[in-house]
Structure formats: C-alpha cells, structure tokens
From TrEMBL:
Family per similarity comment: Belongs to the peroxiredoxin family. BCP/PrxQ subfamily.
Top-level EC class: oxidoreductase
GO biological process: cell redox homeostasis; cellular response to oxidative stress
Domain Thioredoxin: 5-157
Protein name: thioredoxin-dependent peroxiredoxin
This protein's record includes keyword Methyltransferase: no
Keywords: Antioxidant, Disulfide bond, Oxidoreductase, Peroxidase, Redox-active center
Species name: Cuspidothrix issatschenkoi CHARLIE-1
Subunit structure and binding partners: Monomer.
C-alpha cells in the first residue's frame, strides 16, 4: 500500500500544470485546498464528483477554499471535461503519476478479477500552513463533496 499522508503531516509539495498548462504550485496557494484525486475524465463517478464540487464551489470559496482535482488525463482532456459539464474547478494533469503517487493515490486496484495499478479516488484537505488537515483515502462519490464541505466548515470555525 502506498504511503498516504496523515493528518498533521506536511502536504507533499507540487508544481504541475492545470487544464490551461499554467503551473500550479502548492507554495503559491495561500488558502485551504481540497485536493482530490480521480481516475478519469468523463466517466460516471468522476463526472458526479466534479459536478458535486462545482455545485458547492461558491460555498467553498466563501470559506477561503480552492478545489483542485487531479488525474492522469491530459490538459486537452481536462478542457473538454470542463467545457462539456461547465465545471468551475481547477484540474491538474499528472500523466507521470508523480503527484498521485506522492499522495498515495496510485494503488493496486481490482476490477472483474484483474489486478492493475490505478488512481484510487481520494481527497485531502490541506491547510493554509501546507499541512494535511483531513484525509479521505477511499472515497465513494455519493455525498462526498458535501462531507468535505462540512469538514472545512468545522475546521475553519475553530
């Protein structure tokens, strides 16, 4: 099993391109971050998750929180995904799995009796101090964005 960052640990650093090929660096984001990892653009679960985060994006922004999705898909794929579903979130492209592996989301998966390496749907809440505030290592899409929003509300109220 990959090394999944734990609550209180420093967030693994990153500097990778978004859907517009702009480099997004952890060091440059001075607010809360919802960093979520998903397997593939335009698949049912991934679309639901992206739409749910988009639906709550204004509420997250009001709490000083940036939503960032990460998958191995290309920038072009991300642009099509965003346009097709009118998404309002940032999507990072990680075809070499460097960021995905750094957060322990590149794991052994099973499907129809076959084992393979792939992206395990997972989410990390990163504080403005660049530490892991909360982690969901095995995400089920239904109700997940709401659960993350509830947690950020709880943590920012302190």
């Amino acid at each position: 099993m990959s090394n999944i960052p734990q609550i209180g640990q420093p967030a693994p650093d990153f500097s990778i391109p978004d859907q517009n090929n702009n480099i997004v660096k952890l060091a440059d984001v001075n607010e809360w971050i919802v960093l979520y990892f998903y397997p593939k653009d335009n698949t049912p679960g991934c679309t639901t998750e992206a739409l749910d985060f988009t639906e709550l994006s204004t509420e997250f922004a009001n709490l000083g929180t940036k939503i960032i999705g990460v998958s191995p898909d290309s920038a072009a794929s991300h642009c099509k995904f965003i346009a097709k579903h009118n998404l309002s979130i940032t999507l990072l492209t990680d075809p070499e799995h460097q960021l995905i592996e750094a957060y322990g989301a590149w794991r052994l998966k099973k499907f129809m009796g076959k084992e393979y390496m792939g992206v395990a749907r997972s989410t990390f809440l990163i504080s403005p101090h660049k530490s892991i505030a909360y982690a969901w290592p095995n995400v089920k899409t239904k109700g997940h964005a709401e659960a993350v929003f509830k947690k950020i509300k709880e943590l920012t109220a302190i």
